């Protein structure tokens, strides 16, 4: 059995604890001000969304007996 080498600790080094504000500043993030900030315009119309949902439902249930 070998002993751990002083240059190679057995565990990863402990990272300093940062506050939420410090973590956010490090990532250069901005607060979410509205749910609209999270909205994505993936589908151009409700009809396109309905077609996608119908296709997805059919594919998920295709092999179900």
Put the structure in a nutshell.
It is built from 2 helices and no strands. With 65 residues, it is an all-alpha fold.
Task: List key phrases describing it.
single chain, 65 residues, mainly alpha
Mean pLDDT comes to 85
Task: State the secondary-structure class.
Answer: mainly alpha
Q: Counting H and I runs of at least 4 residues, what is the number of helices?
A: 2
Give the H and E element order. HH
Taking all Cα atoms into account, the compactness measure Rg is 25 Å
Describe the structure.
By secondary structure, the chain is an all-alpha fold. The chain contains two helices and no strands. The protein is flat.
Secondary structure blueprint with pairings:
Elements lengths: L19 H8 L18 H15 L5
């Amino acid at each position: 059995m070998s002993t751990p080498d002083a240059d190679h600790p057995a565990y990863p080094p402990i990272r300093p604890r940062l506050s939420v504000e410090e973590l956010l500043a490090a990532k250069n993030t901005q607060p979410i001000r509205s749910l609209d900030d999270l909205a994505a315009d993936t589908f151009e119309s409700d009809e396109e969304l309905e077609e996608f949902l119908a296709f997805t439902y059919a594919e998920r249930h295709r092999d179900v007996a």
